[in-house]
Amino acid sequence: MRSRYPGATALAATLTTTGVLHLVAPAPLDRIVPRSLPGTPRFWTLASGIAELGVAAAIAAPRTRRLGAAGAAGLFVAVFPANVKMARDWSDRPLPARAVAWARLPLQLPLIGWALAVRRHG
């Protein structure tokens, strides 16, 4: 479906891509799941992938776009601890890898802002 706000289409596509990656290549993502969460890392990796696909579908549908975008913003907040864990775990890696891991942290803010903008334009 065509959106009046092009950011919605791109956000849905981005979430679809990351959701699929969580399901087809979960092992690298399992390693960044905080150990304090109950259950297995694989459960959380798959659950977050399914959540990404769910909010992507909601964003893609005009009737549920606002709700889906709010869910995406919440999801971006919820996965932040995994990004912190990754940055801390990668402290002994070469500088380029450490830079990527630490750069992911502030990048959550524009993702949250993007989702909230889609919600406003929904």
UniProtKB/TrEMBL annotation:
Superkingdom is Bacteria
- Keywords of this protein's UniProt record, alphabetized? Membrane, Transmembrane, Transmembrane helix
The residue ranges crossing the membrane are 42-60, 67-87, 99-118
The molecule here is called DoxX-like family protein
Species, as recorded: Pseudonocardia charpentierae
Print the organism lineage. Answer: Bacteria, Bacillati, Actinomycetota, Actinomycetes, Pseudonocardiales
